[in-house]
Design goal:
The chain has 2 domains: 200 residues, Rossmann fold; 207 residues, 3-Layer(aba) Sandwich (Rossmann fold). By secondary structure, the chain is an alpha/beta fold. Strands 2-1-3-4-13-12-11-7-8 form a 9-stranded mixed beta sheet. A 9-stranded mixed beta sheet has the order 15-14-16-17-24-23-22-19-20. A two-stranded antiparallel sheet has the order 5-10. The chain contains 14 helices and 24 strands. It is elongated and about 90 Å long. It binds zinc ion (2 copies). The site of one zinc ion has 5 residues, from loops.
């Protein structure tokens, strides 16, 4: 569960940055809530202004919270509009904000929210806000605007920035150890006794007596620090409420550390509920325990590397790659893989390789045949008649003319029926290569159809092969489909469905 989530969080940020795939990620849906949790905790992230890059940090924090399976999350980019009735439904506020004061109504609403027993989490530079120091705009520039401090906020956060001696600051960004000084605190209890962070190491925050430091780091002079241990994580009781401050989290890179993720999520859970169940992430890029083991076979036909992104980043797919069919089937692979994805174009397969492939399929393991792999093993009738239920004809055969192809066709595609592979898919529209004159077995179950005159009507199907689950998908030539959310969803669904063994 947690494993799933971390990977997708990380990817989501990468993918948001790349400006692609986000919809594919969304299509996959949210992980289910942690079994132990009675209900989702409601978190509201306060953002919209920050001298840090809130446009990437806020979505990252949101994704972490959502993917933990413990939180429902909303974001406001105008916290000055908060009222008691808006805040009522939330359990915890996450402060990713540095900017001007919010005005009486919002400030009183937030203060009484915490005082009356709810939670607040303050991230990194957000304890600069409301200190009376010059208001900062995006990119650390002072706006010239000075405001009165908000004393209740400074009490809630328990330690904040000051420009008077000893001044708050940080040395050079580097990798340092964060050590729990209160290993029995609920936030610390599920974490290792120390962890590494690559971040700014804040020094000399103006600590308040109510703050309880739970983790510290040595701020070394060599990195322009203070030569003393500095507080990194602390908690503050405020009225009946709980506040957690995390000095880590300068940007999405710093937030993409197991220590940040673990301490942020557990801290948010503690602030919201008073106890912690979210596990510490041992690894950032794990594959989920129940992931399908996928062997992807290429060779004999070129392709764009965007093809790999179909599998990379899906936590349910633990995939590896064989660069030829000959390499893929040199031994019995039944114990190693759950499903094969063919994206090769191989004319002949030697008899012992055929045997391994037959063994694999007869054992009930799945198969997905993509795009040019419809022209595989053209002299092996069992293969195309029984297993795939279709074949691209490289040349005319008897009464059948050769199949044809055309690149860069704008396709309108309609799902057919209610097969599990089509779940979540509606009509699609993307650019791909079309095939026409592909031989289809009369026994196939069509999944997708198109109306384009240069294409066969049926462009994806379930084969009639009884011993294992076989899916054929004709599109998939280049990045126009590889990156298209509907195509990604279709292929990923096809692999997961085919990989669910018949035996
Ligand atoms: Zn920073
Ligand atoms: Zn192609």
């Amino acid at each position: 569960m947690a494993h799933r989530s971390l990977l997708s969080s990380f990817l989501s940020v990468l993918l948001c940055t790349a400006g692609i795939f986000l919809h594919g990620d969304v299509l996959r849906g949210q992980p289910t809530a942690a079994a132990a949790s009675p209900r989702l905790l409601n978190a509201l992230i306060l953002s919209g202004y920050n001298n840090h890059d809130w446009r990437t940090s806020t979505p990252f924090l949101k994704k972490l919270l959502l993917d933990s399976g413990r939180f429902a999350v909303r974001v406001t980019e105008e916290p000055s509009g908060l009222t008691p009735s808006v805040l009522e439904r939330y359990d915890v506020l996450v402060m990713d904000y540095v900017g001007s004061r919010w005005g009486r109504q919002a400030e009183e609403a937030v203060e009484s929210f915490v005082r009356q027993g709810k939670g607040m989490v303050v991230i990194h530079g957000a304890n600069y806000a409301f200190t009376g120091l010059e208001v900062l705009g995006d990119g650390h520039k002072a706006t010239g605007l000075k405001e009165e401090p908000w004393p209740q906020f400074l009490k809630m956060v328990g330690g904040y920035w000051t420009a008077s001696e000893p001044k708050t600051g940080h040395g050079r960004r580097h990798t340092f150890e964060v050590v729990f000084s209160d290993p029995d605190h609920p936030i610390a209890k599920g974490m290792p006794p120390k962890f590494l962070a690559t971040d700014e190491l804040y020094h000399q925050p103006r600590m308040q007596p109510e703050a309880h430091v739970i983790a510290r780091a040595m701020s070394r002079k060599e990195t322009h620090g203070t030569g003393r241990e500095e507080p990194i994580l602390w908690t503050v009781p405020y009225g009946k409420g709980r506040v957690f401050y995390n000095a880590l989290g300068h940007d999405a890179v710093a937030m993409n550390e197991t220590g940040f993720i673990g301490s942020f999520l557990r801290g948010a859970e503690w602030a919201a509920a008073g106890s912690c169940t979210i596990p510490f992430p041992e690894k950032l890029y794990p594959v989920s325990k129940d992931a399908k083991r996928v062997l992807v076979v290429t060779g004999g036909h070129g392709y764009e590397p965007s093809f790999y992104t179909l599998f990379d980043g899906h936590p349910g797919l633990a995939w590896t790659h064989a660069v030829s069919a000959s390499e893929a089937f040199q031994k019995d692979i039944r114990s190693q893989f759950d499903v094969l994805v063919l994206y090769d174009m191989t004319a002949e397969l030697a008899p012992e390789r055929r045997e391994n492939l037959v063994r694999f399929l007869e054992s009930g393991k799945g198969l997905v045949v993509l795009h040019h792999a419809l022209a595989d093993y053209t002299s092996w009738p069992w293969w195309y008649n029984e297993v795939v239920g279709g074949r691209y004809l490289l040349k005319p055969e008897g009464d059948l003319p050769g199949s044809t192809y055309l690149h860069d066709v704008e396709l309108r595609v309609t799902p057919l029926g209610a097969h599990p592979i089509l779940q979540g898919l509606g009509p699609m529209h993307f650019i791909d290569e079309t095939y026409k004159g592909v031989w289809h077995s009369p026994a196939i179950t069509p999944l997708l159809q198109t109306d384009h005159p240069t294409s066969d009507p049926v462009i994806a199907w379930i084969s009639p092969y009884a011993k294992s689950r076989v899916v054929a998908v004709q599109p998939g030539h280049d990045r126009q489909s590889h990156f298209y959310p509907g195509f990604r969803h279709l292929v990923q669904n096809a692999i997961l469905w085919a990989g669910a063994s018949r035996n």
